[in-house]
Amino acid sequence: MIIHEMTWTELNEHDWQDAVVVIPLGATEQHGPHLPTDVDTRIIGELAQAVERQRREHIVLTPTIWLGHSPHHLSFGATLSISLRPYVEMVKAVCESYIGMGASKIWLLNGHGGNRTPLAVVLQDLKLAFPEVVVTASEYWSLARESIASLRESGPGGMGHACELETSLYLYLNGDGVRKNLIRDDGFSPNSLHSSLDMLQGESFSAVYNFCEISSSGVNGRPSLAAKEKGEQWYRMIVENLLDFADRLISLKRK
After folding, report:
1. Alpha-carbon span 47 to 235, nearest angstrom
2. Are 28 and 113 in contact (CB under 8 A)?
3. What share of residues in the chain are helix, strand, coil (percent, to 5)?
4. Rounded mean pLDDT of the chain?
5. Which of 34, 74, 79, 90 is an S-S bond match for 179, by CB 3.0 to 4.6 Å?
6. What 3-state DSSP class applies to 92?
7. Left, alpha or beta for 135 (phi > 0: left; psi -120 to 50: alpha)?
8. pLDDT at position 193 over 80
9. Strands 220-221 and 159-161, how do they pair?
10. Which of 47-56, 68-77, 81-90, 205-214 is least confident?
11. Closest CA relative to residue 108, chosen from 58, 166, 64
């Protein structure tokens, strides 16, 4: 079920107790010279729609939130960013609206790494305010980590931003939007504490960087290895992983 296709009377009659509300979270920000600013929003929106199509009786799909927490990209321009606390309050307000309608399961499906920190605060605040409601947040690449890794050609650092993964997915979803002649690998400063900055790998410590410190073009990774065919395979693999997680939420019984 898609919120924007429903009337208020239909929504009021819906059995929210058995539904999983899926809130896709994207961003509007620079993605190097070769990708448009809607990358995170388009990818997460398409993935969420695929989940809704295959679990329509149980999923309530909300509009994708296109404004993200992206202060680390502001130095490149072409980025819309909301500060951490207002972002937290915005996402909480959306969740609280659905809770007010009767929702008891909410899935914050995230497509932008910069949203991760404020979402942790959202989860904590909502747990304190609504302990009986299940609210979970996840990045699509984390849920599909093993599937993504099975196809990647790049080594550590090859997947970060406007990279092998995101460029491949965008080539599949909106190939005409990719400026293929401008694809260039970039990213990672030798002065960084990190050995690499990669979507599928973590470090034993945390550090914050402005993106201009790790990239001259806004790219972090190996988009030169991207391919439409790979993007289609990844898209289907990711959807399957998201469906597995959706089924876990659907089958979850509240006390």
Report:
1. 8
2. no
3. 50, 15, 35
4. 94
5. 34
6. helix
7. beta
8. no
9. antiparallel
10. 205-214
11. 64
Retrieve residue 200's tokens.
């599928």
Domain 3-251, CATH among 3.30.9.100, 3.40.190.10, 1.20.120.330, 3.40.50.10310: 3.40.50.10310
Confidence of residue 107 (pLDDT cuts 50, 70, 90): very high
In this prediction the pTM is: 0.94
Q: So where are the chain's domains?
A: 3-251
Q: Nearest Cα to 22, choosing from 53, 8, 40, 235? A: 53
The pLDDT tens digits of the residues spanning 124-164 come to: 999 999 999 999 999 999 999 999 999 999 998 899 999 99
Q: Give the separation between CA 80 and CA 30, rounded to whole angstroms.
A: 9
- How far is 13 from 201, CA to CA, in rounded Å? 44
Alpha carbon distances (Å) from 85 to 68, 69, 122 = 12, 10, 10
Longest CA pairwise span in the chain (Å): 58
Distance CA 46, CA 231 (A): 13
Whether the per-residue pLDDT at 31 is higher than 70: the answer is yes
Write the pLDDT tens digit of every residue in 200-226: 876 666 778 899 988 999 999 999 999
Handedness of CA 35, 41, 45, 47 (dihedral sign): positive
CA 152 – CA 69 distance, rounded (Å): 27
Q: How far is CA 144 from CA 82, 140, 141, 169, 233, in A?
A: 27, 6, 5, 14, 12
